[in-house]
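#structure-requests
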Amino acid sequence: MKKVLSLTLGLCMLLGFTGCGGQTGTPDAEGNADIALLMAERDEFLSVLEQNIESEAAKAGYELQSYDAGADPAKQMDCIAAAKNSGAKVLIVNLTESELAANLLEETEGMKVVFVNRCPADRSLLNENTVYIGADETTSGRLQGEALAAYFEAAGKKQISYLLLSGRDRLEHTVLRTQGALVALEQAGIQATPAVEPLVCDYDRAKAQTAVENLPAGTTYDCIISNNDAMALGALAALEPQGDGAEALPVVGVDLLDDAKVALAEGKMLMTARQDAAGEARGAVRAAINLLEGKPFDEGMEGVTPAADSEYAVYLPFEAVTAQNVSNF
């Protein structure tokens, strides 16, 4: 049987490190693992991504163990030392911060690295041994902006105010998703101004619900732009007593969580941009095995597009999902 594929959201607990937690799965008899995954955290989407990685690895004949770095960059750095001690040759990394990549790579000392879902801010770090599997994050925001533009054009509105639910700071895709939405609105001739400063809710449903509930009295806005579905759903929970839904207040998200499918079908969300967790997982596992075997990282991959900004990155497409097509997913 092949050596165990260690999905290490922190291999620290197994080896006496205290910086990481959340171990599941079983290592091989020697406690070694050729491939380790350093996962940033288990938010709602990343939990789905992790489950899909486990499934793809099992199909490839690998067993898994998983740990959680808890969104803490220092813990993620600690986990590299643990992965080294485990004998890992390839790391699958979901970054806690986009700028952490350079420091992380300094500590890997020749291990091959597959970044998944969260890309290093500095694309020059990517090479034949350090690659990225994910999506073009600007696209998700563009799809949001296009949906909102169509909604307001149909309503005859050219000037709107928006409420922005922002994801975690120091993550590149937080910025790109926001920029994509606002640029698309501008290009469509919609003048969009913020109702209040962005509500930074760290991609967390409960934080978003609290933030919306605690808005100053009298705050008005024409739509909600959310960097992910979890925060959009939190906002909807806050607005439910007011009876607001997509018909009265268009809400847009990113990911296509299961709860978002329900909200779309019920008309409570205008749209979301589907992020392909299964595809990212499949690509990450395939890239890790390819690097381990000395093959080109993207050999045998399907459904991916070479990134325009690096030959060592591939993107999976975002898809706009609305009430009209959500039954297809």
